[in-house]
Amino acid sequence: MLRRVAEGVLVHESAFIQSNTIVVQGHEGVLLIDPGITTGEMACLANDVRELGQPVVAGFSTHPDWDHVLWHPDFGDAPRYGMAIGAASMHELLAAPGWEARVASVLPPEQADEIPMELLGRITGLPSGTTEVPWDGPTVRVIEHRAHAAGHAALLIPERGVLVAGDMLSDILMPFLDLDAADPVGDYLDALQLIDGVADEVEVVIPGHGSVGRGAEIRERIARDRTYAVAARDGFDPDDPRVGPVATFGTDWLPGVNEWQLQRLAERRQSDVSPGRGPD
User: Fold this and answer.
1) Which pTM does this prediction carry?
2) Distance (Å) of CA 74 to CA 39, 40, 121, 175, 208
3) Cβ-proximal residues to 267 (8 Å cutoff; 6+ apart), any chain
4) To 10 degrees, the CA torsion angle through 141, 22, 60, 221?
């Protein structure tokens, strides 16, 4: 199940929206990033990690969406990190009565019974300003931003030339904006600028969902996400190949999500126009 994509960096792809779990080998153990998705997949992943001869010594969730905060008992009780905002939102969720039903309502029905929730969301927030994941392994730099979700982070492993992008830079999904944010498109463009600033250090980009990209693909994916975000902001059809006629994934549901997202943005623009106000 594990596929090596760079020295000391391996990836497991789930059947659910091509979700990627990342394993980074350290000195005494591995860092497990965004493990998922089903109980069976994670049990198999735990076995594959054991075959590497190293225990799980740390975990990291790139953001607080349910499919990025999962865990399995076979991974052990290593500390699980995330950004402070994401950890706080998880703690708030888990403290609320009936949180299981809330999470269950957004799970894919065909896989809901296979997704373990017992250890969901039990992450420790890294202090504001933290620049590296605390673990005994290659430096993993934290690039915190607010694109897609508050408490989101990309992870750069300079020594391995790897960027773990979280839910950005996918070759199969257009940008999913945080439509509850004050400036969802601005947040996304700011995050892309941060990632663009380290792109020269990247040889391999691993999105949360989709295929691993190599070489010049990092720049191409940044440009594609930026084109979508700018078009969506300005009220134009992004004409994005990931949701167009040539799309090869999610053709039965992604166009609908795209249309809904664009409609929400159009409604926001309309609400920002004062009644009766003409052009300046």
Assistant:
1) 0.93
2) 10, 11, 16, 33, 22
3) none
4) 60
- The string of pLDDT tens digits covering residues 244-268 is 899 989 999 999 999 999 999 999 8
Per the DSSP assignment, residues forming a β-bridge with 56 are 30
Measured on CA atoms in the order 177, 178, 184, 188, is the torsion positive or negative? negative
Cβ contacts of residue 110 below 8 Å, gap of 6+? none
Compute how many other C-beta atoms are within 10 angstroms of the C-beta atom of residue 18. Answer: 18
Q: Which residue's structure tokens are 């989101």?
A: 152
Give whole-number Cα distances, 244 to 169, 170, 248, 258, 279, in Å.
Answer: 17, 15, 9, 10, 34
Edge-to-edge order in the sheet of strand 162-166: 141-145, 152-157, 162-166, 204-207, 213-214
Nearest residue to 24 via CA among 47, 53, 56, 1: 56
92 touches 137 (CB < 8 A): no
Cα dihedral across residues 50, 54, 56, 62: positive or negative:
negative
Tell me, what amino acid is at 30?
V
Q: Is 276 left (phi over 0), alpha (psi -120 to 50) or beta?
A: left
**Over the stretch 120-144, which tens digit does the pLDDT of each residue have?**
999 999 988 899 999 999 999 999 9
The string over 35-55, giving b where at least 16 C-beta atoms fall within 10 Å of a residue's C-beta and e elsewhere, is: bbbbbebbebbbeebeeeebe
CA angle 98, 100, 101 (to 5 degrees): 70
